[in-house]
Amino acid sequence: MILIIVLAVASIVVLMVIHEFGHFIVAKKCGVRVEEFGIGYPPRIFGKKIKDTIYSINLIPLGAFVRIYGEEGGIEDYKSFSGLSFGKRMGIVLGGVISFWIAAIILFTIVFNIGVKVPVGDGDISGLTQVEILNVIPSSPAESAGFKSGDVLKQISSGLQTKEIKKTSDVSDFGASHKGESVSLLFERKGKPIEVEAVLTEEGKMGVVIERMYIVIEKQPWYLTPVKAIAFCIDLTSKALVALGQLVLGLVLGQGLMPGAEPAGPVGLTVFLARAVELGAGFFLYFIAAISVLLAIFNLLPIPALDGGKVLFLLIEKFRKKPISPKIEQGITAVFFFLLIAASIVVTIKYDIPRFSEFLKK
Asked: Is 149 helix (H, G, I), strand (E, B) or coil?
C-alpha cells in the first residue's frame, strides 16, 4: 500500500518536473539566465551551481519550480525575461504547457505498443471486451489442451451446442451443463485462432482462472504507435475542452457540476493514480498520460498564478503597447494564488480526504 502511494506521488512530481523543464529549456534557448531549477519546494536540501544556474533538491516533495531572471518584470537586462521580445517570452511561458503534451504523446506511444486492458466483471459495459485466461492450473484439462495465460476464449461447443464466449459466466454455465464431457474450444493467441479439445472435470471445470477484460487501447504495430499516440492525444484534448466548456456553461447557468462529476485536488489525484497502479502498468501509464493532457489544459486557463494567466498578461501588454506594472501583476497573481490554494484545501477536505480514507480501507 505504502509503495503504491509513493509511486503515485512520484509520478505527479515527475510530471511537475517535466513541466518546469519545459520552461527551463526554452528559457535557456532564448538566452535568459535561469537562476534556479529545483525539484521539490524549499527549504533546500542540496544545491549545486553550474554556470548561472543552481540545481537544487528541496524538502517538500510536491512538485518543482524554475526561477527565471527578470520574470517579475522591471529588468531590461538582455539576459532577463522582461528584456526579451514578446514572442520569446510567450514561448517560455508556453514551454511548460507544451511539455505536458509532449510527455503525454510519449506515454501514449508506449501504451499503444503494449495495449491497455482492465478487468470489468460480467456487468453490462459498452466497448470492446474479451474473456482472457489469467492462469492455467497445473495438471488440469486446460494444461493438457495446451492453454496459456493471455489466451482469449472465443467459443465453446459440445455436439450440436455452441456458445459464444462474451462473459466468464458463459464458460462456467456451459461447463455446468456438460460435466465430464469433451468440449471444443476456440481461442486466440496473439491474434491467431486456434481450436482444441478438452475433457471437463466431473465438476464441469477446465482448470483456468479467467477474467473479462475491457480493451481500453488495443496493441498496435510499433511503426503506427507514434501516429496513433498523436491522434489520440488530439482527440483527448478536444474532448476535454468540450467537457470544460460544458462545465463552465453549467456553472454560468447555475446548474452546478455535471451529475457524477466531483473535483479532485492533489490528494484525490494521488488516490486515482494509486488505483491505476493496481490495474497494471499499461493502465497506469495511460492514466498518467491522460492527466498530463488535463494539466496542460488547466495550466492554459486565463487565471493569474497559472501559465494561462501569464499568457493573458502578455496579450494585454501586446494590446496596450506597454507592460502592466510589475507590482500590479504580482499583486493580482498573489491574490489568485491564494484563492487557488484555498480552493484546493476545500476540495481536499470535502472530496479528497473521504476518497483517501476509502482507499485505505481496501
From this structure: coil
